[in-house]
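Quick note —
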Amino acid sequence: MILLSYANLMRVYSHAQATGSDECCGALLGIMSDIREVKRVVALRNMAKKNPQWNYMVLSDELLQLEKEAMVEGLDVVGFYHSHPYGTPVPSSVDLQMAWPGYSYFIVGRDPGALFTAKSWVLQLDGQGFKEQELVVI
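Predicted structure written out below.
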């Protein structure tokens, strides 16, 4: 299970709205336990040079700095978020190739009516797919 405040959900939706047709991306900082609690979302720059509408990339230096900041705050990097500007909040084959075990992957999809939907996923232990996490907005 992953807990996310309504305010943080709106921050992610706003980021997805602002990036338009390109995927947005960011980090989820919080408490890593059986129930993951997101305390803060941090927007990151999508540095994908090829097809940013269909994938995202975060620079390792930016991620390292974020992990240091989280540690100072007593938080963990619980996972990452990104958007699917043209589709559902379901992991793609690219998402599967790029996923790291142990993290939550919060995906925001946009339907043809421009409404956002969100789901959270974790990589299965065998790395062959994702399992949906129960998402609770508080």
